[in-house]
Amino acid sequence: MKIYIVPVATALLAISQQSGAIPPPPPPTAAQLPVKDTLAFEITEGLTTEVGPRQAGTEAEQRARDWAVNKLKSLGFANVREEKFDMPTWVRGEEKAWVVSPFPTPMAITALGNSASTGDKPLEGEIVYFPTYDALVDAPAQMVAGKIVFIDHQMKAAQDGSGYGYFGRARFTGPNVAAKKGAKAIIIRSIGTDNHRNPHTGNTNFEAGVAPIPSGAISNPDADNLVRQVKRAWAIPLPGSQSELGYRPTPVIVRLLLTPNNLGQQKSGNIIAEVPGSNASLPPVVIACHLDSWDLGTGAIDDASGCGIITAAASYLKKGPPPKRTVRLLWAGAEEVGIWGGKAYGEAYKAQPHALAMESDFGADRVWRVDFKLPESAKPLEDKIAAALAPLGITRGKDPATGGADVGAIIAAQGLAIVDLQQDGTRYFDLHHTPDDTLDKVDPEQMRQNVIAWTTVLENVANYEGELALGVKP
Amino acid sequence: MKIYIVPVATALLAISQQSGAIPPPPPPTAAQLPVKDTLAFEITEGLTTEVGPRQAGTEAEQRARDWAVNKLKSLGFANVREEKFDMPTWVRGEEKAWVVSPFPTPMAITALGNSASTGDKPLEGEIVYFPTYDALVDAPAQMVAGKIVFIDHQMKAAQDGSGYGYFGRARFTGPNVAAKKGAKAIIIRSIGTDNHRNPHTGNTNFEAGVAPIPSGAISNPDADNLVRQVKRAWAIPLPGSQSELGYRPTPVIVRLLLTPNNLGQQKSGNIIAEVPGSNASLPPVVIACHLDSWDLGTGAIDDASGCGIITAAASYLKKGPPPKRTVRLLWAGAEEVGIWGGKAYGEAYKAQPHALAMESDFGADRVWRVDFKLPESAKPLEDKIAAALAPLGITRGKDPATGGADVGAIIAAQGLAIVDLQQDGTRYFDLHHTPDDTLDKVDPEQMRQNVIAWTTVLENVANYEGELALGVKP
Lengths: 474, 474
What we know:
alpha/beta; 2 domains; eight-stranded mixed beta sheet; 32% helix; homodimer; disordered N terminus
């Protein structure tokens, strides 16, 4: 017997077509949820308090995995398991920076993941200023060689976080570009929208064959100050350099001490748990968050709260009758430093067909938009979900859903359906990858709205028996 | 010839009583000021950029004094001078802290001024938790001896900054109380109202004969986390301790590394500048700010902006005809670490009668109230000032003015008149004594309102020829 979860009129028709059998009660709807969900916050509070920072590949991430297994088992999920994998591990050392001239001042700096070490003796050099990442890309190598690159481009806040890709290039590949042009080091203005002395870390990557250079981010107030120093230095002729041809401005000299280490291959792992579906022939829905965090904060918004949200929603689903499809929770390891957990999941499960993927990895502020990537045949499902979410203040997006980092590999491998519950990211990049990513930044009220939205989507997609995966075009 | 600056009707009367002489034009009034003052901000920008942190007794404070002398001379002030004095100097070293158990986590900590060093090897100990300073005061010594005291009391924001005295006790004298009860160290929740991982430093003092102990402040998010750890530890019996009589809870173990140094007596100094008055027989008005800052930030709100505000106001006064009374600017040294500059000023000038004192040392947010301490005879002056400030949104306070730290000694010595332009301190303790005290926190619009208010008061008090000082009651 099949019970389709479809819009009400169709549902009544479907039931009337069944030969007299009484269907089981429908799963709880969003409206029936406890108004005051506390589980998502409890998970976030527990993980940030009892584990704290949990950088990938470190013993802290192992403690986080142990914590996660205990928590998911105690919540009654099925098939809770740890699936280990190896990944390259870089850890922070000392990090200090100073402007030496024209005006000596300390700067708040943090090393970017994969940064080279300056060695125990600070490195000193002249700043070459670039207002944007593109200006560095366009600069001739001789302008950069032997200098310390400074990229000043400042990220602006956006509700959908859309500035990250554009401004983030200064971090993602700025160090690689600088290294290829012969820079001895690089500092970037933090990829962040706050004005606190807490610089934003995050990974950078060097191409094969490019020797990493010391690479750090300074806080926005420090970048503001460095810009003021650069402007003043430009107005001060270098002693003896004045002539009819003009003058060379006074150089801005910076000193850096960054002593990170590469630990080589270390263990990380994914944690998996399930709400078993009643129909084993239907491919599962996979919902993801990531368990690792950067080391500077306690990873409350990135991404303990994502794990809290998806787990609370799955827990509500579990309290009703079994869903048709298995809902699999993936608390991924090692996302921050290369999405190693997502890749490991994609590799481990490539032979098992999946239906649909979702991820929560953008803090805990309210969901404001839902995006879909579903087959044409699932249009009624999409309509039903959008209608159910509208009372929560969630609008329907026009662009196709793209999914999250940790489900990227399995989506790409199988061409899965996707639902994205887009969170308000206006203040996300105030906190992202900084020491300030702590529990007090999580708003329990907005987090509850996330849980209601997630539960609503899950109860619909997990009970939908039509085709969901779109498949990979050859 | 005397021109009294008094309410309009009286002023007309005063002029009509003069024997036909044409008075000089009146000094500019607030309404005639340039709407867009930039000088206060320029001074703040210059001092924070070209000097940056300028802790008392260090070479950075000497650079700040040199900067100040140049700036005040270039602005055309008279009698610009440096007046040096000696003061004991304490400087920060390394500072790190961790919770060791029950759940290992790093904490953001900063040493309090006059803290002892832990030595190069971290100190480890059991936390004894106190919700308030008073609870520590009331605790028996045996509860505290050999432990690390943690005072958790959290300051709340208030427009008038009135929580500082009450909550600040945890910092001002908490370490002394803890040391006397035999504590091996103390950590306090920062005396601050923000939720950033930037702990608030500030001075603490130990009584003569009490050996200082390592004393640090942790940030609010770290204190929140430590409280959660303490609560959890209380719920976990110490292994083997369970009996019918109950159990001993698991201890919370903290590790501290604080390596500050005492440098002994070092040079600090006051910078003095004047707008000379036309009537040498009238005692001067002294207006103060402080030049030194804590080392963690660049001292933008504490107190470069105070120096900017008083100096811009004095500069506008200087552009008009000479005031009757000399207005003396005191950019005091070494305020943060014991008000040494204010004391040195009081000592150096005790033989010279003063009329009235004012200070700006509470950030750059708008003035919302004016308080007076003037002789009864100066009631018309008080009324006139209050009326002139009302259009700026400044109300008249009911309590007597008390003055600022740096004019405290001279006020006490001579019983001076005082006008306090009270600033909105709602967000002051978000930033106070933290790395976040940087230029971007100064709102130029609110700063301008300060300058207009200060200029208004100065043009009135500096041209008032009646008695101002109240004198010291024997």
